[in-house]
Write a structure and sequence with these properties.
The chain is of the alpha/beta class and 605 residues long. The protein is built from 19 helices and 21 strands. The longest helix has 29 residues.
């Protein structure tokens, strides 16, 4: 049975193909359209999934959409009626796309894909829960799905056993952790639905001075993790902004203008909402353990990408094992919708566990063989050297050891927001200047943004207080005390962004200002080539990790094709590119010509 899952029309639209319960392919539309967070119908992603599976639309048994548009439309209408006439501008802006597209999903699927078969719908949080539990390695687990809002639900607790999922509790709109976090994302001057991870990265620079203000005025938090938001301070029900004037008065002035200087207030606001979010998630995790009795926990929904909170759930010992859907946001709903149809709709069995989980390391996107890569490089006039795998790893490791930045394009593209060693930009974690170099000269983004280490799984405990694997870069862990660098008296007096200039450990490029790191563990069985590269780097330097960030620049999606990779390589100050069996050196390439200043056209993330 072939089932195509679709998520679309909100943000990060995606498609996924499931064959008899096995995820065969999955990709976000943005990777093909080159429009970051593309929300449009994922035609190119769906076409790729069908091609990867070797089938046509006529061979699909079902197409499943990841939420129920008519119930969501009901929520919108009720919300507009409750807030009228205040919501009229928002109402008028939303209606055209609803009346033209969102209410006619079967027609759109038929028109876009030439599909004439059965179309089904899963609820939004059913899709999230299915994406969290079914690909996990567990046969019994609590499930927490937590995001902005689906149809009505914003937060659900469920219990997965075998092929069954039982939903136990839910919170409903307008009370939402995701919308609370997005309100602070908006107020601190970042873009909602894409800048939340910036707030998380900014938080360690601040102090939690507004936590009590949030709990006193915005969030009525209960011991079991349930809560209510005081709508006096928010504007998302009735307006086109997340917060209102009362919110600004409460926090000492208007929101930061996007792209303006970040002040201590924004850092303190980020830290405060991060602390409150962590407390909510910790309480909910304890409640799930009590309700289900399971030692395992699965997470999905956009808030599950908060890797700082995820790490705290583990360190608190609330559960023994944690599995987070790598594409935890709306994109992962495409996988969840298809899996929900297979298991809950058709009674299909879960496939046998063949690795660490049932998601194939989340490398579910397109791959390109050496012939295809050679043809693309030739058409672009690139100068390259073809190497055997061992030579490629050795020479790339030499480049990294000499503080060069290397683009790494190998195998199938990752599904989800994290680069996992297939579409990555790599650097030397020992370098005190690497974080600044990669942020400002390669990613073209804010200097405060931290980078993640990809570490050999067998050596992880030499560097981090982490007692489990973290293959999807979704857990933050403390850097071990014995590799931290003591601060001088002068450095201990630094506050805010000035803390960025302090080397915190022997791996400063991946150590955040609070002595933490967002860790990716790499096993040889899962990714022999990437593991081999890091192993070669260890042999040359004694360091068992590399800096890993996604292969893209600010405002653009992760690269998908060889053409994307070479273009990004030439537009930045990357020193080398390892793509398939080919190694390219920047100083050997022909001069890159642009018709215009491409960075002027990129919108901020």
């Amino acid at each position: 049975m072939h089932i195509l899952g679709i998520s679309a029309y909100y943000h990060d639209s995606a498609a996924a193909l499931v064959r008899d319960g096995v995820v065969v392919a999955a990709a976000q539309e943005e990777r093909f359209s080159r429009t970051k967070h593309d929300h449009r119908f994922p035609k190119q992603a769906a076409d790729y999934c069908l091609h990867e599976a070797g089938i046509t639309t006529a061979e699909l048994d079902a197409v499943v959409f990841y939420d129920k548009p008519f119930i969501k439309f009901e929520r919108l209408l009720e919300t507009y009626l409750m807030t009228a006439p205040l919501g009229i501008r928002s109402f008028l802006k939303a209606m055209p796309i609803w009346l033209k597209k969102k209410l006619w999903i079967p027609d759109t699927i038929g028109a876009e894909l030439g599909y004439e078969g059965h179309v089904s719908f899963a609820s939004h949080h059913e899709s999230h829960a299915a994406s969290a539990y079914y690909p996990s390695p567990f046969d019994d687990a609590g499930i927490l799905t937590i995001d902005g809002v689906g149809e009505w639900a914003t937060d659900t607790i469920a219990h997965g056993r075998g092929k069954d999922i039982d939903f136990l509790r839910e919170l409903r709109f307008p009370h939402s952790v995701g919308l609370l976090y997005s309100a602070f994302t908006y107020f601190t001057g970042f873009r909602v639905n894409s800048g939340e991870y910036k707030v998380m990265g900014l938080a360690p620079y601040g102090e939690p001075k507004y936590v009590q203000t949030i709990l006193d005025h915005l969030v009525d938090l209960k011991e079991d993790g349930s809560f209510r938001l005081n709508q006096k301070y928010f504007n998302y029900c009735a307006g086109l902004t997340m917060t209102n004037r009362r919110f600004a008065t409460l926090f000492g002035g208007p929101r930061r203008s996007p792209e303006s200087r970040i002040t201590q207030r924004e850092m303190d606001l980020a830290r405060s909402v991060q602390d409150v979010t962590e407390e909510i998630m910790l309480r909910q995790a304890r409640t799930i353990r009590t309700l289900t009795g399971s030692k395992n926990l699965c997470l999905a929904g956009g808030v599950a990408l908060n890797c700082v909170a995820n790490g705290k759930i583990l360190r608190e010992g609330i559960v023994e094992n944690l599995w987070i859907q790598p594409a935890a946001g709306d994109a992962g709903g495409a996988i969840g919708a298809a899996l929900a149809y297979w298991h809950r709709g058709q009674g299909g069995e879960r496939p046998a566990l063949a690795g660490t989980d049932r998601q194939n390391n989340s490398c579910l996107g397109p791959a390109f063989n050496d012939d295809e890569i050679a043809q693309a490089l030739g058409q672009m006039g690139a100068v390259s050297h073809r190497l055997d795998p061992q030579a490629l790893m050795e020479q790339s490791a030499d480049l990294l050891a000499n503080e060069n930045v290397v683009g790494w394009f190998q195998g199938r593209m990752e599904f989800g927001p994290r680069a996992l060693g297939h579409r990555s930009i790599l650097g030397d974690p020992r370098s005190p200047t690497m974080q600044s170099k990669m942020n400002l000269k390669i990613k073209f983004r804010e200097s405060f943004r931290p980078f993640a280490p990809s570490v050999l799984a067998e050596d992880c405990d030499q560097y981090f207080d982490l007692k489990c694997d973290s293959p999807y870069m979704l857990l933050v862990a403390p850097v071990r005390e014995d590799i931290r660098v003591p601060m001088t008296d002068e450095e201990q007096g630094f506050f805010g962004i000035d803390q960025l200039n302090v080397a915190r450990s022997t791996i400063p490029a991946v150590t955040h200002v609070d002595y933490s790191a967002r860790v990716q563990t790499v096993r040889a069985d899962d990714d022999p080539l990437y593991h081999g590269l890091i192993h070669a780097f260890r042999q040359k330097t004694g360091c068992s990790m590399v800096v890993n960030t996604s292969f893209n620049v600010r405002g653009e999606p992760m690269v998908c094709t060889p053409e994307d990779a070479y273009t990004c390589f030439m537009r930045t100050e990357m020193d080398a590119l390892a793509i398939g069996s080919f190694l390219l050196h920047k100083n050997e390439q022909p001069e890159w010509q642009e018709e215009c200043n491409w960075r002027d056209d990129i919108e901020p993330d």
